[in-house]
Write a structure and sequence with these properties.
heterodimer; A: alpha+beta; Ubiquitin-like (UB roll); Alpha-Beta Plaits; Rossmann fold; 7-stranded mixed sheet; 5-stranded mixed sheet; 27% helix; 19% strand; B: alpha/beta; de novo design (two linked rop proteins); globular
């Protein structure tokens, strides 16, 4: 271990640590643009300059390695003056179009300019005119006037995706980011460039001009779009009037977890999940009767379903009930589902009906399109999808979780198979057309709207809390299952306690050794 | 005036010196024969160290010390890169060595490689020197044919190949790490140091980078000994220097003189004094990046330490002589334009600072100067100097500061006149 002093405070760090990281440990964040922990120090923005006792020049925090007894000053007048100088240069050629810039409010240049008190410019010359809207990728627009040449985008494409779509062209003040031979950014991870860009140079057409960062609340969740379980931020506007009281999600961003996704997420998750949050949502429970949708209160819906199931059980035909689960459900929900329908109710068939595998790559994206296939397996579910014949034969009540069965079977086939089933209930957050074949539809929450945990493909159990609020007529599957246990009158002393994800997780940890560590 | 000893340019008058026969006839490759037959690599290295041979590229770092930074016992290949990307305005000395006496450089390369244990050398030559590059390649072929290059040189068991690589016109590629990037086929951007090239250089391997003139001095040192070399120059700055004198002098050209010769003597004795009887106004003593000296500041000895003590820099020894009647704003404009044009754009202060300075100077030159412009230039230069990724920032800032400080009255006088215009 190396002991050094940062602004007078002693810090101990392993050999080879940079001053930047040591300062971080001391609770000091050095201002920076080009530095990013995922890349080697670049040393080009010159903003993390610091003073080291005994050194004639200011040194870089990002690349200087600590030495025993080193005395670092991060806020001397000389340091502040140098940083002001750098910011003054950047602002001189910057368009200062913050009022119409998507990055305003979360822009590093804006933050630092305020920190260093740059309010007036001494620049009396003409600013360079540059392209303001260069399409550098499917959803990416580059504004060259805002660009500060930190080259994080170029280095991401060189070091992380290794696809090298962008490079620096020209030199001096004319240096600009451009597309290299081989075409624009299209590598499945392009959205990360928007997060990486410390200013508003790279913006996302999905987010551009839709809202302002200061209108957004930030929740933490886990991406449900594949088995990786990338940690994410869900940025939403509380109270967006799409449906009174619901939240509109504007963007999904990576939340750094070195063990799972590092600081990145894929485009499929990023853009797919925003769509999944906002589009095609089922927003209330209803009953299909003679081709007409009849809205139901939740209590009524649960009572009706409970009555139908109990009637079967009383007639000794509980085995005529089939339940098709999905690994979009959390560990807790799957556990509760299994407890209720297998152990206490005695349903005839409990199967998994996951979507077929999707595109994958050798970086983050996994072929399984659900977040909890591994959790389902650990809970004892058979991942093999059922045949329609097996699912429908003799079934009187079918409870389907998730709309994925429609991806497994052709519509006609499905319609024919389901025709014979007296009561068909779908629990889904999304309308995909399948709801037309159902008798009842229960609107459920997306993972971002609920508490729970997913087990990723490596077996890592990742608990999360609700990041955004669902609309009022939407319930989590956990709440639906708990209510069903109540209306079925199953062991009230047991199920009565299991109304929150945390409570179920404790029970799960007791019951299944694999989950023992997660409680 | 006593004839100064000339050791590099001594035989430049010989016709066909660039051919191996002429070079050998005048005693060429004798040092190499001596070194390979009688000296160990360490002895060659020690001799160069003792000779206090300071780099002729601009920074003036002792060459022997630089060679010593190469890690001992590394299992990686080691490389020598010869910096022949002579691009500093006012500098044209390497061009003469390369075109008149390429074998002198080749012999120096082989000796340096032998001393450090290098088997591949690259000459990074500026693209504009195309004819010279071809001449150098011809010389390399001749040397290989005569057994001075290639496998088992002169039966010693020592192997060396030299490759000539042409630059594409960027001044920044003369910066040693940008040179390495360019040589590797990448954009010529300087690298963040450390690691230094001696440890992580060309193709990530230990690398020595020396200027043409530096290496051209090595054969003499080996043939005649370090004592002889020190005698020629100064105890801490051995040998002679090739000064390139340009501008308003009667006889512009290259002058090989002992380190420490006074600037006044170079201009007024060797270069024949001022052209057409004009009056001296100022001198840029070591290539455009060196701070300007006023006419009364030229009693300075031209060695690394003395010029530094006078507040300027010996640099590449490119002396630019400016006569009365040349508006200093015109000089400033050339300086500002050049560095703004040649900044690679990688780091903030250099990219935006050089451009801001250029824009201000151009505005002044266009007659739209304002009060405070000269102070603004000094402040901008101060915000560049010492804060950039590579020395180009300093090179751009130093001359601006010096011109603005030393010629403030003239520059501000110009503003007043300009302001009076409609």
């Amino acid at each position: 271990m190396i002991k050094l002093f940062i602004d007078g405070a002693a810090v101990e760090v392993p050999e080879g640590t940079t001053v930047f990281k040591a300062a971080e440990q001391a609770g000091i964040e050095l201002p920076h643009f080009c530095f990013h922990p995922a890349f080697a120090p670049e040393g080009s923005c010159r903003l993390c300059l610091i003073q080291i006792e005994g050194s004639p020049k200011l040194e870089l925090g990002c690349s200087t390695v600590v030495r025993e007894g080193m005395k670092v000053v991060t806020q001397s007048p000389a340091v502040r003056e140098a940083r002001r100088g750098v910011l003054e240069f950047l602002l001189a050629e910057h368009p200062l179009d913050c009022p119409i810039c998507d990055k305003a409010g979360e822009c590093k240049l804006q933050d630092y300019s305020r920190d260093y008190g740059l309010t007036e410019s001494a620049f009396r010359e003409f600013k360079e005119k540059r392209d303001k809207k260069v399409a550098i990728g499917e959803k990416l627009l580059l504004d060259r006037e805002r660009c500060i040449q930190c080259t994080r985008c170029v280095r991401f494409l060189a070091a992380i995706t290794k696809s090298h779509e962008l490079g620096v062209f020209e030199r001096g003040v004319h240096a600009e980011i451009g597309i290299l031979e081989g075409g624009p950014v299209r590598n499945g991870y392009s959205g990360n460039l928007v997060d990486l860009c410390p200013v508003g140079a790279i913006t996302d057409t999905d987010f551009r001009f839709k809202t302002r960062p200061w209108f957004l609340s930030r929740g933490e969740s886990v991406c449900p779009h594949c088995g990786r379980g990338c940690n994410i931020y869900v940025d939403y506007q509380p109270g967006f009037p799409r449906v009174p009281g619901s939240a509109k999600v504007f963007r999904i961003r990576p939340r750094t977890n070195e063990a799972v996704n590092g600081p990145w997420i894929c485009d499929a998750g990023r853009y797919g999940y925003v769509r999944a949050q906002n589009e095609g949502r089922s927003d209330r429970p209803f009953w299909n009767k003679d081709g007409a949708k009849t809205g139901l209160a939740w209590d009524t819906a649960m009572a009706v379903l409970g009555d139908k199931l109990r009637a079967l059980a009383d007639a000794g035909r509980a085995d005529r009930v089939a339940v098709a689960a999905t690994s979009w459900l959390t560990n807790e929900e799957l556990f509760l589902l299994k407890k209720i329908f297998r152990d206490d109710f005695g349903a005839g068939r409990i199967v998994m009906c996951d979507p077929p595998p999707g595109e994958w790559d050798d970086f983050l994206r996994r072929p399984d399109r659900t977040p909890n296939a591994r959790g389902a397996r650990e809970l004892g579910f058979d991942p093999a999808p059922p045949t329609l014949e097996a699912l429908a034969r003799g079934t009187e009540v079918l409870i389907l979780f998730g709309p994925h069965i429609a991806e497994r079977f052709a519509a006609d086939e499905l319609r024919a198979a389901l025709r014979g089933i007296a009561v068909k209930v779908l629990v889904t957050p999304h309308f995909t057309g399948l709801e037309g074949l159902m008798d009842g539809v229960l609107a459920s929450a997306t993972p971002a709207e609920k508490d729970g945990s997913f087990t990723n493909f490596e077996g890592r159990v990742q608990p999360f809390a609700a990041a955004a609020r669902p609309c009022p007529d939407v319930r989590s599957e956990l709440a639906i299952l708990a209510a069903l246990a109540g209306s079925l009158g199953l062991r009230p002393d047991y199920y009565g306690r299991l109304t929150t994800a945390a409570a179920v997780r404790r029970e799960l940890a007791k019951d299944i050794p694999f989950f023992g560590g997660a409680a | 005036m006593t004839k100064a000893p000339q050791v590099l340019t001594e035989f430049f008058w010989l016709e066909q010196l660039h051919r191996i026969e002429a070079y050998v006839a005048r005693g060429g490759y004798a040092a190499l024969k001596k070194a390979l037959a009688e000296m160990t690599a360490e002895q060659v290295h020690d001799e160069v160290k003792k000779a206090a041979l300071r780099g002729r590229g601009g920074a003036g770092f002792p060459a022997g010390v630089k060679w010593g930074f190469i890690p001992k016992g590394t299992d990686k290949p080691k490389y020598l890169c010869v910096n022949a990307d002579e691009g500093e305005p006012g500098t044209f000395k390497d061009k003469y060595i390369l075109s008149h006496d390429p074998h002198l450089l080749i012999e120096g390369i082989v000796l340096a490689s032998y001393a450090v244990g290098i088997h591949s050398a690259y000459v990074y030559i500026r693209g504009e020197y195309e004819t010279i590059a071809r001449r150098l390649e011809q010389a390399i072929d001749e040397a290989r044919g005569a057994g001075f290059l290639g496998r088992n040189i002169l039966g010693s068991g020592f192997d060396l190949e030299i490759v000539v690589h042409r630059g594409a016109g960027a001044y920044i590629c003369g910066e040693e790490t940008a040179l390495l990037e360019s040589l590797e086929g990448k954009r010529g951007n300087p690298r963040l140091k450390p690691p230094f090239p001696a440890v992580v250089g060309l193709f990530q391997c230990p690398t020595v980078i020396n200027n043409v003139e530096t290496l051209a001095n090595v054969p003499g040192i080996i043939r005649n000994g370090a004592g002889w070399f020190l005698e020629l120059g100064l105890p801490k700055d051995g040998g002679t220097r090739i000064f390139g004198v340009s501008g308003a002098v009667a006889k512009p050209g290259i002058y090989e003189l002992p380190s420490g010769t006074s600037l006044r003597e170079i201009i007024f004795t060797h270069a024949g004094g001022m052209k057409d009887g004009r009056k001296l106004k100022a001198v840029i003593p070591g290539g455009m990046s060196s701070p300007i000296l006023k006419a009364d500041e030229i009693d300075v000895r031209m060695d690394v330490d003395s010029v530094a003590a006078a507040g300027s820099m010996l640099g590449s020894g490119g002396i630019i002589v400016i006569a009365d009647g040349t508006p200093i704003l015109q000089v400033l404009r050339k300086v500002a334009e050049f560095y703004a044009h040649e900044s690679c754009g990688q780091c903030t202060p250099c990219r935006l600072g050089t451009s801001w300075i250029r824009k201000t100077v151009e505005r002044m030159a266009a007659g739209r100067g304002q009060a405070g412009d000269v102070d603004a230039l000094i402040r901008l230069a101060a915000n560049i100097q010492g804060r950039t990724l590579c020395p180009l920032g300093d090179a751009a800032a130093m001359p601006v500061t010096a011109i603005a400080r030393k010629f403030r009255a003239e520059l501000e006088g110009g503003l007043a006149t300009a302001g009076a215009r409609p």
